[in-house]
Amino acid sequence: MAATCSIKAYHRQEERYVGLNLEYTQKEDRINILNAIEETKQKFDTQPIIWDNQKEDGSGGVYIEFNDDYDKESGPFYEDVLRKIGIDHCER
To answer: What pLDDT score was predicted for residue 42?
Structure first.
């Protein structure tokens, strides 16, 4: 997938809860994000909770959550998704 700067990533963590919010401005970004998530779910054989919130204008956000992440599965999963969509850092 092509790298794009129209996607912003925000990471949140509390104890064993970990979330990654991917905000996008274009419908194509949403498709790239969802494809990357599906590929990564198969690669790691895991099923995080996914929320997909698309607005009428095509912008929106996809939120990936791991609850009770005792085994720290979220880190490699998030890194793989971010790499696939061309993001090398999260926003502050």
So the answer is: 97
